[in-house]
């Protein structure tokens, strides 16, 4: 197989046949390494296939060496080098070009997803942790990427369970079961924990995070994989990525520090108001300012736009949020076109500096709810891989119902594409109507006893009022307008007299409730 490296800002030649080109990319990681190339393949008919982004490392790179010393032309990389595709779409495209091409291409590129022993050797190199694994977890390399590099399916089913630590003495905690089935409808990638205040929704999410991210630091409950796939995923493995999302100033869980070198047992990322780490004197850092959040957004946009596949996922995620007319008017997607123009006019670093500035300015003009939504979905596009677990605590706190529904649909679509899973702790029936009942756990407490159960009725697409009654039951009928209607009927008023008491200002739902309450009263005598 014939390979040729094209210099940065160079262009692909025309009329090529059965040849691979590596287009040098100007992106660098932490201002230390520039290992990115974009791969194109001209097949035997001369058709051009864009395979995608790859990073190439070299064993024993010397100090201040930013890029591997690969030759300008080669048939296969020699033993000094190793490579890793930067997205599952890279391996998907290679598979689509046929088994023979896949095997020859990945062998010639010394791909570490294909070669397990080579990957373990490469992990000893600093360039691997800082650069090649900056946007890819080692769990994904060992799992999804290796499966695909051997011709396997892009998405697979998986299931897991979690039992929190005991809620007080002599109380057996419930066990939550979750399963993800690719390409099913309704989708099964979003799961919901719902119930009234103080039943333990947030507690469960926090303890699950601890159990996965820092299990050695205490008893955080029992997490188990319920199925083991063909590549040996079992209790010794974990999710490729844990992403915690909360914008509550009262959330007690502190985000963990994120190392520059991405080698870790399980990668953890935090999206929210808090800074990672503490001040030098050990005190907590203040919450992030609007400028801090805008900077987070700018950095995330920059990382997304370095990869075509992530750019396309981001554009789709934004389009699903545009069912909200005000969000649509913001035209966040224009940053993609802005970056293309900046690239044509500036060197890479200057283009990224200007992009981040434009992104921060655009972000600052959004409302608080839109700020939260666009930052969250952008960071998730950047972070989510196969078997990523996203944990969200009460996203409804800052979003009106239509925007909340749009966000859940966008989140679900992204998770379907990446085969990730989200667990949402919520009070909101608006979220509930976006998922099937098989993905819902209703939590309730009586004293110190805690129980969980699936809803009796189907939840996907159900009326919000019906879901509210189903989940909260007597809490609804004993509060708000329900209580006012019940009190009126208990005063032995007729239907017309109840209407008169409320000056005729009752909606259809309220009138139906009044008729039902009067019928029950008359039946009971």
UniProtKB/TrEMBL annotation:
Q: Name one GO molecular function term.
A: ATP binding
Q: Which Pfam family is an annotated match for this chain, by its short name?
A: AAA_21
The UniProt entry's coiled-coil ranges are: none
* Record-annotated ATPase AAA-type core domain positions: 190-432
Keywords from UniProt, A to Z, are: ATP-binding, Nucleotide-binding
PANTHER family, alphabetized: ATP/GTP PHOSPHATASE, ATP_GTP PHOSPHATASE
| Identification of the protein by name | ATP-binding protein
């Amino acid at each position: 197989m014939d390979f040729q490296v094209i210099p940065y800002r160079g262009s692909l030649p025309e009329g090529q046949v059965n040849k691979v080109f590596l287009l040098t990319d100007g992106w660098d990681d932490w201002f230390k390494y520039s290992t990115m190339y974009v791969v194109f393949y001209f097949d035997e008919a001369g058709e051009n296939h864009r395979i995608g982004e790859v990073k190439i490392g070299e064993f024993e790179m010397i100090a201040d060496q930013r890029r591997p010393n690969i030759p300008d032309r080669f048939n296969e990389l020699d033993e000094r080098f190793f490579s890793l595709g930067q997205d599952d779409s890279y391996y998907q495209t290679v598979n689509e070009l046929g088994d023979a091409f896949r095997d020859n291409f990945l062998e010639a590129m010394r791909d570490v997803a294909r070669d397990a022993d080579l990957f373990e050797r490469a992990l000893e190199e600093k360039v691997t942790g800082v650069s090649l694994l900056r946007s890819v977890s080692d769990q994904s390399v060992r799992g999804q990427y290796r499966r695909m590099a051997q011709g396997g399916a892009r998405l697979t089913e998986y299931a897991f369970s979690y039992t929190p630590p005991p809620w007080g003495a002599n109380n057996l905690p419930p066990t939550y079961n979750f399963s993800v089935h690719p390409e099913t409808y309704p989708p099964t990638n979003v799961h919901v924990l719902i119930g009234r205040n103080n039943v333990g929704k947030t507690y469960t999410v926090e303890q699950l995070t601890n159990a996965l991210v820092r299990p050695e630091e205490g008893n955080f409950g029992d997490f188990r994989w319920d199925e083991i796939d063909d590549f040996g995923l079992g209790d010794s493995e974990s999710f490729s990525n844990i992403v915690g999302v909360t914008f509550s100033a009262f959330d007690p869980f502190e985000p963990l520090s994120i190392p520059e070198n991405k080698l870790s047992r399980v990668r953890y990322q935090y999206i929210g108001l808090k800074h990672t780490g503490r001040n030098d004197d050990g005190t907590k850092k203040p919450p992030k300012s609007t400028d801090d959040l805008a900077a987070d957004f700018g950095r995330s946009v920059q990382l997304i736009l370095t990869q075509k596949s992530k750019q396309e996922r981001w554009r789709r995620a934004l389009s699903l949020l545009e069912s909200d007319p005000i969000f649509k008017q913001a035209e966040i997607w224009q940053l993609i076109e802005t970056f293309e123009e900046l690239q044509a006019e500036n060197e890479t670093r200057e283009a990224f500096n200007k992009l981040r500035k434009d992104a921060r300015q655009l972000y600052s003009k959004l409302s608080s709810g839109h700020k939260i939504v666009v930052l969250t979905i952008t960071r998730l596009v950047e972070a989510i891989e196969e078997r990523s677990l996203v944990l969200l605590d009460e996203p409804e706190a800052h979003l009106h119902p239509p925007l909340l529904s749009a966000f859940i649909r966008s989140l679900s679509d992204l998770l379907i594409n990446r085969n990730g899973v989200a667990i949402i702790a919520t009070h909101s029936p608006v979220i509930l109507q976006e998922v099937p009942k098989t993905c819902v756990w209703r939590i309730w407490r009586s004293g110190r006893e805690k129980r969980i159960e699936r809803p009796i009725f189907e939840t996907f697409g159900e009326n919000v009022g019906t879901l509210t009654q189903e989940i909260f039951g007597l809490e609804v009928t004993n509060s708000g307008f329900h209580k006012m209607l019940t009190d009126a009927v208990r005063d032995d008023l007729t239907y017309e007299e109840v209407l008169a008491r409320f000056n005729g200002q009752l909606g259809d739902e309220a009138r139906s409730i009044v008729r039902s309450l009067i019928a029950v009263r008359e039946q009971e005598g």
